[in-house]
Every structure is written in structure tokens, then in C-alpha cells.
């Protein structure tokens, strides 16, 4: 059966576009796989030389991405090089300062020049700091905002411009945080005071809001923008949770999963949002937090 708009139905009752490899109306292609996969896709991930970003690179490669680029200001470490050796020619590093818009744009140009495509970008690079709000200097707060918020802005807008240039239905995924929903109850204990890092939480709330607003603005171009809010993940940035002497007690009363997650446990959410299976998913946030914040 051919519909009046020239499209054909998918096997599950949906409607697929028929015009070759591109869909002019944003509908999925008839040839689109129903598997959650990144087959043939080129993905850029900021801050992927370590921690969550490196775990996301591993997840993308495990789900058949053809090439993953880490855009990171730091040099690759041992863990990155080990993963790179397992995927020869599929994992690359480009040195990028995400607060420098020109560097971000140049890195995406280099990716497209090498691969002739860009399918997704994960704006993941970020920093944290924990102390009383009254002890933060203006310069310290501005640094958090510059890296976390402006860095995400630079990467998302550069990716959107590239998607438009390539006529690609691209996906942008931002790393927010469960701290964007409210005060972090598992914050660092300094003396007798619990310190939730007010400026960090504010940057992550800004990122989550940015994703929703960009999703609405770019929906007409079939550019999807979503975010993921990790909970307590076992990385260097979670030292304030890992080292807290009252961690077990806090988790007992929260009724959350009484452990920190491995970074790889975030991979499924990001892979889904980057994949064609999420072709109608935009403007959402996926909490991956072991029930923390659910009640």
C-alpha cells in the first residue's frame, strides 16, 4: 500500500520515507533497522579520554559505530590507548578546548573531511567543584559555567550547523546530571556541613534546559537534542560521594540502589538517543540514577 503522500508503511504499521537515503519530511526510511545500533555512524564525544566519556566511546564502538572521535583538551591516557588498540582505526583523539568555538568547529570540519559524515555528537566535557556557595569566588563560578555551559553550547551549535550543511538528521546528546533536578543530598561533608555545589548543579540545570529548547528550535530540521542525567557514577569526579563517611547511611534512607554505577552502565541511554531507533525522540532527559531522585 502506498499512502497519498508517497510514503510506504513500515512493517509495524508506521510510515517510512521512500526518497533514497534522505527523508524530506523527517520520517524514518523504509530500510531503517529496528535494531538499536550505530552501524556506519560517525560519533564525536567531548571529554572522552577518560571517565564517562571514554565509557560512552566504548559503548558506541560496541554497538557498531564506524568511527568515534574524542574531542578532549587532555592527552589520551592508558585506558584510552588500550581501548584504541582494541578498535584499530575506529577511535581517534582530536585535541580541543570546548570553550573555544573556533577549535570546536575546526574539529568537526576535520572529522567530516576524514569520514565524509557526522551523525551524532555527545556534549559530555565538564568539571565540578565542591565547597560552600559562600566560599566560591566569581572567577571559580565563571569557570564552571564557561566549561560546562558554554562548552556544551559551542559543541551543540557547531554540530547543528554541520548537520544542516550535510543535510543529516543528526543527534545531539548532552550530559546533564541528577543534580540538575535539585540539591545533591550526597554532597561532600566538610566538617559538619553538607556542601551540594550550588554552581555545579546550576550548570547542569542549564544544560538540561538548553537541550529541551534546542530540540524544539531544530525539530523542523530533524535534528534531535536530548540529555542524560547520570546519578552517582564511579569516576574521578565522584570523589565527594565515594569518600563520604556517611554514604551507606544516606543510601539506606534514600531507598536507592546502594552503590555507585560503572560508567559503562550509562552507555545504553546514549546509544539509544544516538541511534535511528530514537528518530522520534527529542527534547527529553533520561535519568540513569539507580532510583535516586525518583521519590
UniProtKB/TrEMBL annotation:
The keyword Oxidoreductase applies. Residues 1-24 are annotated as: Disordered. Pfam families: adh_short_C2 (PF13561). The keyword tRNA-binding does not apply. One of its GO terms (molecular function) is oxidoreductase activity, acting on the CH-OH group of donors, NAD or NADP as acceptor. It comes from the Eukaryota. Transmembrane segments: none annotated. Keywords: NADP, Oxidoreductase. InterPro entries: NAD(P)-bd_dom_sf, Sc_DH/Rdtase_CS, SDR_fam. Belongs to the short-chain dehydrogenases/reductases (SDR) family. PANTHER family: BENZIL REDUCTASE (PTHR43008), CHAIN DEHYDROGENASE, PUTATIVE (AFU_ORTHOLOGUE AFUA_4G08710)-RELATED (PTHR43008:SF4). This is Oxidoreductase. It comes from Capronia epimyces CBS 606.96.
Amino acid at each position: 500500500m502506498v499512502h497519498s503522500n508517497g510514503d510506504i508503511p513500515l512493517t509495524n504499521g508506521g510510515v517510512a520515507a521512500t526518497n533514497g537515503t534522505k527523508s524530506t519530511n523527517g520520517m524514518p526510511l523504509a530500510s531503517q533497522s529496528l535494531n538499536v545500533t550505530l552501524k556506519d555512524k560517525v560519533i564525536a564525544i567531548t571529554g572522552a579520554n577518560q571517565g564517562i566519556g571514554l565509557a560512552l566511546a566504548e559503548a558506541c564502538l560496541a554497538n557498531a559505530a564506524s568511527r568515534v572521535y574524542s574531542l578532549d583538551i587532555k592527552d589520551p591516557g592508558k585506558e584510552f590507548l588500550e581501548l584504541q588498540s582494541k578498535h584499530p582505526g575506529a577511535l581517534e583523539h582530536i585535541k580541543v578546548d570546548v570553550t573555544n568555538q573556533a577549535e570546536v568547529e575546526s574539529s568537526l570540519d576535520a572529522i567530516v573531511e576524514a569520514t565524509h559524515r557526522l551523525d551524532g555528537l555527545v556534549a559530555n566535557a565538564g568539571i565540578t567543584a565542591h565547597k560552600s556557595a559562600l566560599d566560591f569566588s566569581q572567577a571559580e563560578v565563571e569557570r564552571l559555567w564557561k566549561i560546562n555551559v558554554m562548552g556544551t553550547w559551542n559543541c551543540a551549535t557547531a554540530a547543528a550547523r554541520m548537520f544542516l550543511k550535510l543535510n543529516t538528521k543528526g543527534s545531539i546528546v548532552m550530559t546533564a546530571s541528577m543534580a540538575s533536578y535539585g540539591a545533591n543530598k550526597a554532597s561532600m561533608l566538610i566538617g559538619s556541613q553538607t556542601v551540594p555545589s550550588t554552581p555545579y548543579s546550576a550548570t547542569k540545570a542549564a544544560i538540561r534546559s538548553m537541550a529541551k529548547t534546542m530540540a524544539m528550535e531544530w525539530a523542523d530540521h530533524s535534528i534531535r537534542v536530548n540529555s542524560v542525567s547520570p546519578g552517582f557514577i564511579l569516576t574521578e569526579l565522584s570523589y565527594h560521594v565515594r569518600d563520604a563517611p556517611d554514604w551507606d547511611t544516606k543510601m539506606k534512607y534514600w531507598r536507592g540502589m546502594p552503590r555507585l554505577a560503572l560508567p559503562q552502565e550509562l552507555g545504553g541511554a546514549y546509544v539509544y538517543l544516538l541511534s535511528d531507533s530514537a528518530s522520534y525522540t527529542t527534547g527529553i532527559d533520561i535519568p540513569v540514577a539507580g532510583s535516586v531522585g525518583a521519590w
